[in-house]
Amino acid sequence: MAKRPNKLLDKIIATSVARARKDINQWRMALQRAESVENPKRYLLYNIYNELILDAHLSAEVQRRTLAVQGASYNLVNEEGITDPEKTKLIKRPWFNDFLRYAMESVFWGHSLVQINDLVEGEVSGVTLINRNHVIPEKGLFVFRQTDDKGIFYREDEKYWQWLLEIGNTNDLGLYNKCAPHVLYKRFAQGAWSEFCEIFGMPVRYLKTNAKDDESLNRAENMLKTMGSSFYGVLDLDEELKFLETAKSDGGVYKGLMDVSNNEISKLINGAVIGGESQGGSRSKEEVGERLSESITDADKQFIEHYVNHTLIPKLIALGYDLNGVSFQFEKSQDLKQLFTFTQGFMQTMDVDPEWVQDTFGIPVTPKTVLPPNQNDAGDFFG
């Protein structure tokens, strides 16, 4: 095992996250900078991504897709496909759950560079994501400041090979890039709708008066300013307080734009609009959406399996883990309803192992009680 090099995280010169309001033009400029052939830089685009993930709907969709993988059961199996419990325990650690999260984030961000922290008693103590603003995947370059052009070419430096996990394609900008215009349009619509409510949500108040003196006019103005739920006023006989109703509109055009944006985000992340966001839905439509989401989850699991087997396990073996001859595998999900129907059919013509039934369906199984022949004879009962 090679000596532990200095951690890349220790070399980062931190920069504050820019939280200025983002718009479509800024996204286009940031995208152009990230796609530059001569000098690609992603930090402007990633600053926009950091704003996007504050959107509640996008965050919920991403979490749903991520948890479908993080919450799935997995094992290390030998060449015969039999689970090896002892070796599986070596990776069923908190750090591996963090790795799964960072690996799934690469789908949305386009790239994740993860650092193995240390070895404690021969085991990985944890993993940490290296700030994406300091990584230029197109060049395999780590920079100390996010605006730098020079740094460490981590792919070419052999001492970093065992300690760095690079996940994602070098030129992929992730699903957040496709979500960006929809979130930005939605944010604009939400802001405009809020302004609409402020202007047109309440009837306009006006006071007709013949008063000319400053004291009376100031009194009337202060009364209008302080009108609230418990408001009352004292008016002269020649004063008249009226309310002018605004145009009868509920701002549906803004809601429509927000709904369209949410639907596009759902389709991008999970393949379909499912549940309460679905308009004019039906059971068959929801089932199709669920199947699309399951297909995406299966593809995510396959992506994780390939990376763990071809990249992570060889690095862990190099770090001293005894993982030779095993491979990582998610447990296959089964349609228990369909399987139970098949099982009922088999039971008509052949025996089914009771232990298998109990383990598969969680149904306690005991031998059927058979009554003696004389208790089944109706003639004996009536004498």
Which descriptors apply to this entry?
12 helices, mainly alpha, flat, 12 strands, three-stranded antiparallel β-sheet, 383 residues
Description:
The chain has 383 residues and is mainly α. Among the domains are: 8-177 and 290-330, no CATH class; 202-245. Helices cover 46% and strands 11% of the residues. The strands form five sheets. It has a three-stranded antiparallel beta sheet with strand order 5-2-9, covered by helices on one side. It has a three-stranded antiparallel beta sheet with strand order 6-7-8, with no helix packed on it. Strands 1-12 form a two-stranded antiparallel sheet. Strand 7 and strand 8 form a beta hairpin. Helix 3 (56-70) packs across helix 5 (94-109), helix 3 (56-70) packs parallel to helix 8 (252-270) and helix 6 runs antiparallel to helix 8. The mean pLDDT is 81.
Strand residues, percent: 5-15%
Q: Spans with pLDDT under 50 lasting ≥5 residues?
A: none
| Number of β-strand runs | 12
Give the N-to-C terminal Cα separation: 89 Å
Q: Report strand order across the widest sheet.
A: 5-2-9
Coarse structural class: mainly alpha
The main pleated sheet reads as: 3 strands, antiparallel
Provide the residue-averaged pLDDT.
81
| Element-by-element helix/strand order | HHHEHHEEEEEEEEHEHEHHEHHH
Indicate the radius of gyration in whole angstroms: 32 Å
Task: Determine the fraction of residues in helical runs and give it as a percent range.
Answer: 40-55%
Number of helices: 12
Shape: flat
